[in-house]
Amino acid sequence: MALIDIDRERGLLTVEFQGLDKLWTFKSRLEIPLAHVRGATHDPGMAREPKGIRVGGTHFPGVITAGRFRHDGERLFWDVKNPDKAVVIELADAETYDRLVIEVDDPRATVALVEQAVSHR
Amino acid sequence: MGRPRAFDADQAITAAAALFAAHGYEGTSVDDLVTATGVHRGSLYKVFGSKRSLHLTVLRNHLDHEIRPATAAIAGLTDPAQALAAAIASYDSGPAAGLLLLAAAERAPHDPEVAALVAEGVTALEDALRPSHGDAAPQLASTVLGTRLRLRAQPHRSKEN
């Protein structure tokens, strides 16, 4: 579980990992420039996708997927135990990741927050 | 971003439009979109960014390729009864019939970008009815929307119109 927030002053999307998720993901926090965020989607089915190769983190299939993965040439960051609450955040021109898959407490609110913060056109 | 797209984005938009029109925005999952478009989940995200962004693209496409041609045809009619009948039969129709109506009811109250696209579609209808109905065009536009809604509410309605 993580807390996703928008830091408007610094123009950042922040992901704060809660409790033991800091351990599983090897990270306490991610910061992504808002200009690199393309959108957010509540996507419980994402967890059934092939995870690819674990680069750094933790993967107990069916229990937890956390940390950095490579799949089809893309770099994904996962932090999901409960797929029902998984939110996919698509990134552009990112130095670090192409896509984040993060479990949050309230997917609907998180998606609305991120989608409001990024303008599509 | 510069990688070539391994699928036809227009085809994916058409398939997504039919889903959104049949099941609404919330009723259409990414799983549904992946299945109906035949596009890999990763590619869907890479091309459209998010489900909301795909929905906005689908709405824009519906406005340009269904609503606009229909309203242009209605605007060419000067007989009031004929224009009204044509509007009821053809407005917000096609393979994704009702997409605009559904977006108006479901998403527009929560999403200013959807609300703007819906307003654009409704304004196009009002403008199209002006040559035949003059100042009463906005009222007649509401009649058209209401009638389309009542037609949609009928069980066992035919697939089109």
UniProtKB/TrEMBL annotation, chain A:
Protein name: Bacterial Pleckstrin homology domain-containing protein
UniProtKB/TrEMBL annotation, chain B:
GO molecular function: DNA binding
InterPro entries reported in the protein's UniProt record: Homeodomain-like_sf, HTH_TetR
Keyword Transcription regulation set for record: yes
Domain HTH tetR-type: 6-66
Signal peptide extent: none
UniProt KW Transcription keyword: yes
Domain of life of the organism encoding this protein: Bacteria
Protein name in the entry: HTH tetR-type domain-containing protein
